[in-house]
Amino acid sequence: MSRDDDHTATDLSHLRGGETARNHDARTIAALTANPGCARRGVMDAAAVDKDAVARHLGFGAPFGQSQFAITRGNAFEAQVKADGCAELLALLRDRLGLEIPEVAYDDLESVGTESREVRHTRTRHLMARALESGAGTMFDHPLLRLDIAGQRAYLEPDVIAFQLGGRFHVVEVKSFAVVDGQAEPEQVAAAARQSAVYVLALRELVAGLGHDPERVSHEVFLVCPENFSNRPTATPVDVRPQLAVVRRQLARLTRAEDIARDMPDGLTFALDEGLSDTVRAVEARYAPECMSSCEMALFCRDEARACGATGTLGRSVRDELGGVDSVVTALDLARGVREPSEDMAETAEQLRVAARLRREALASAPAPAPPVQEALPAPAGVPARGAGVLERTA
Amino acid sequence: MSTLTALAQLEAIASGRAEPVATVRHCHLSETPLVMIPLKLAGEAAAPLATMLGTDRNEPTLMVVPQPRNRDLRFGYAAELAKAVVEHVEAERGATETLEPSKDGEERVRYERAPQIIVPNRGGVGFLRLLGRSTRFRSVEGPWAVDPAVPMLGRWLTWFADRNDRPGSSLLLALTETLRLHWATGQSSLEDGNLAALMGWIDPPEGLDGPSAAARAEDPVLCPPAGPATDPTFDNEVLAPAIAAFDESGGEPRAEERIRAAVASQLVPTWDLAWRALDMLRALPEGASVPKRWERDRDSFTYFHREFAESPPQAKLDDAVRAARRLHDLERSQESYEAQRAFDDPLVMAEQRLAGQAFGGVVTETEPERLDESGKRPKLRPYVRIRTEDPVRLDEGATVVNAARPGLKGKVVEIDGQDVLLELTGGMGRKLTAEPGVVPEPGQRVVFTSRTADSWGASKFPEREDTPWTHGGPPAEYEPADEDATEVWS
Ligand code: SF4
After folding, report:
1. What is the pTM of this model?
2. Where is the composition biased (Acidic residues) (chain B) (predicted)?
3. Which domain holds residue B149?
4. How far away, in angstroms, is B12 Cα from ligand 1 center?
């Protein structure tokens, strides 16, 4: 693919140090919203750095591989649904959802030859403009969309169909996870809804850019999945308003990449050379276990976070329990009462101290040879050590 | 999550080993559990690839579908698996106890034992549930007839999976969840979902500590995933070529053997791990209320087993009434399960103390013979004053019970700084003096809690129309539809 630096026009492209830019897709953008406070990710994404290559270069390649069985099945299902100008999909939308779809046109906007993304995007805009004005066209497969992320323009190549019905566009997304008795795995549905929301947003930008009401892109999307244990597709309407709100809010809050980049020491780049590790470490990260499923840098950042004893590696709920204390050592010191808490930590510290005492007491009174019983508490005089039976369990 | 568990996790990081969050075992463990490690084909909802199973760690059985997309091979596998599961169910029944007849004189019985299935993780439970769903409606006659064992498998697996939803049930256990109930590690719940990583913290191999054992566990070559999803690299580099060779050979035994060997290499490490995990759990003394909960499991089993021949397969979806009842039922059992665990285990009770719902301390003074003479007849109402360091958050007048002797009830009279004055109100016998040893004495350490375990009560077999789903599923009039029997399973 030809290098296309257009979307990093505000120019963080120098940060790539000459490496090839990586394209965004809705997955990476939806994932972006998973950790909007992470500066490291913000900068790398804004500069279109290939995070996967960076992680591998640092020795922390993410195991994001896919089984060929899954790929084959996914492709076969999609091909089946879209065969003959989406015949099966149309039948589904008509019969299952009772939509009245008059005559049908199908346009595939998939790239032809070496066409640049700008050209493809123009073609998408052109067709959409015509559809918006005349109502011509029904299904637009593989539209090439654009979205601004953290002040940077990104292209989206969604594997979806923009489907026009009664003057409104709907996003149709084909997924290969099964819907069994009307239910699918919640995480997969959630991920699909998040992605669709990104597409809706991008489509709305495009429609607004053409001078039309962005609401002509519906918040109702259709997920098309295999039904039960078969290859037969089923369509489910999903209202993505909640996801839209989240994505919009997170995108707006995204740490402004340019500001961060300005604070980076001069001359650092994400080129795959000896300086890479320094560059990466120069930008602050905010690791949480959710990164594992959403960011290619996760193994590196987890290692780094563990090495510096960050409580965030245990997950958000643990961090919350610790009242936001983000160092393991500090939290333990507070629990042991060997560190004076600052005023805002007084309450957390007290809670931790009580918890530590209760834990000690309970472990010492364990009814039987529980594993690592702490010997720390001296038994009251005259009572056999184990029989300390502090809680009188056998009374 | 609680501050106590969070603290245990911090301690685990500091010590490099898992730290206990329980002092007793909170689940029943059968002497001969059926350990099952299922694998499925990637990208499919419920296409079984293989299962390693058995009740003897030295004699695992390996069942493989050499071409998971082939319908006949798949149903052949389902029939084979069905026989193993049904055999286990029948073998684990034991004798039949006759219980006291119910109030309306109906005969009540309970099997002495019940079958138990152990899977490595939540995914294993989900897979068994789907496998149950995809097999229980199959027809045993007509053009798409399957082996009669297949729909039986479906109904049993559905029942096991349903029971797994119920807090405190031990009929189908996921090891990662069960272990996490007893130990806290220095990693997040995400990493704990990997049985090998979790066990690495709890029982690291010689020469390794928790973190290094867990790191090793994340290498799929050294520690293949515990399923049901397989390692994509294994799929692409080993399994796919082996299946292709099988197809090309037209199903030759040698080609099948190659697939079996490949799959076995993925399963054996988890098989060993699962048994080691059971060893770890077995080493813990059983919690006092575990037998009571297992009794409920046995009731459910007895009922489902006895009604099996007469009943249709469980419905696909609960209707509204049943769903509401189910939810209510689950909530109730969650509450009483939590309360029971706290009574069984001081470390769980510590959660209530930290939350201020319970408190523990030393008895400083007592009036064991105090009588309340305000009413017509005097009542025994001893006073007990307890000094505690706990952050008590109880109102005056709150009812509490003794943690070690839940029959002993009391009422908070006043809380004055670290002193709590209790009036004991019940559980001391019928006389005007308490039975000896019941009223705590000065110097004694006691714990009182405001959260009581409501009794699970003796079970009654409900009317057919009233059958709760927990007892083997609804008697909803299920009409076997052709569509179900022929449902594509591709
Ligand atoms: S993995 Fe690292 S770079 Fe990616 S979002 Fe998490 S903390 Fe940020």
Report:
1. 0.88
2. 479-490
3. 3-314
4. 24
